[in-house]
Amino acid sequence: MMRGERSLSERPVVTVLVPLEDDLLDQIRVECDVRQLDYTTPRDELRASLGDVDGVLVSPRIPADKAFFDAATSLRVLSSHSVGYDPFDIPEATAHGVVVCNTPGVLTAAVANVTMALIFNLTLRLFDNERFVRNGGWARREQAPPLGHDVQGKTLGVVGFGRIGQEVTRRMQALGMKTLWYDVFDTPHPDAPESSYCPLDDLLAESDFVSLHTNLDASSCHLIGEAELAKMKPTAYLINTARGGLVDQKALTFALQNDVIAGAGLDVLEREPPEEDDPVYTLQNVICFPHIGTATEETRRMMRELAVENLLAVLRGDRPPACVNPEVLDT
Ligand code: DGY
């Protein structure tokens, strides 16, 4: 029999490693036998349980490497409720004939909203002002925090011009920002908003806000390091709602401590959660969120629905709505 091939009477086995609503679990149960495991299950225990499993539903908190795919000898689909797939070794998945599915599209607006929230909080000093009120500074008629800045007329440099980068561009253009974009490709998608392509170095030098929206892989790891930060304006802000590994965090900390740039808005960090002594807790020119780019009830629900749809499609032998290694489907 081929990988994952079962006789007609056999139902696929699916391991669910993420919390899932009963109605979605029931959808899977109509066609598959379901095993539920906690994502904290020790790695060796998890691998030992995968031998006869046809599909897994995971999140990026559950990395899948060669050892994972070696152990999952019947696996046909790894479906993650995330758009990012950096924790999964895609070449290994492909070599093992496993389709890896993700959830693009349904979370674009949510991540764009959090990106805007970081830009506004930094530029309007919203948190400083909120603390001023809460700590009694206003009541005591103390001097308020320094004034903020307008976003209109400023330049936003978007690094990574996929769905999310384009949506951030649209929204910030509507608010009067000029926009630039950079990506490894220089021909945008036909539906992309009008914006000026700019080589990365020029984008860094010209932007008042640099916002990262690219995938994390070997080529984009530490895309922004000491040299790139040095090219930014001392008045500029770095925004990262994509992946922490895109930025060399040590270099960023140095840049923030030494006024190389004005500040940073981070929804993601190289290490999540950060160690207790991470300067991110004390730096005054940083706003840090705990990776909440998709953290709304509605968006998370749509992500889980799409993850289930992807999983079941592959197990039925159909094309899933979204996958990152479609070549496996074509073999
Ligand atoms: C994603 O979908 O990749 C988000 O970052 C959640 O992990």
Structure description:
Helix content is 33%, strand content 14%. With 331 residues, the chain is an alpha/beta fold. It is built from eleven helices and twelve strands. Strand 4 (77-80), helix 4 (90-95) and strand 5 (99-101) form a beta-alpha-beta unit. It has two domains: 13-104 and 298-328, NAD(P)-binding Rossmann-like Domain (Rossmann fold); 108-288, Rossmann fold (3-Layer(aba) Sandwich), CATH 3.40.50.720. The mean pLDDT is 96. The protein has a seven-stranded parallel β-sheet with strand order 8-7-6-9-10-11-12, with helices on both faces. A five-stranded parallel β-sheet has the order 2-1-3-4-5. It is elongated. The protein has helices at 22-31, 43-48, 66-71, 90-95, 108-124, 126-134, 163-174, 200-206, 226-231, 249-257, 297-316, and strands at residues 13-16, 33-36, 55-58, 77-80, 99-101, 155-159, 178-182, 196-197, 209-212, 237-240, 263-266, 286-288. (2R)-2,3-dihydroxypropanoic acid (DGY) binds next to loops.
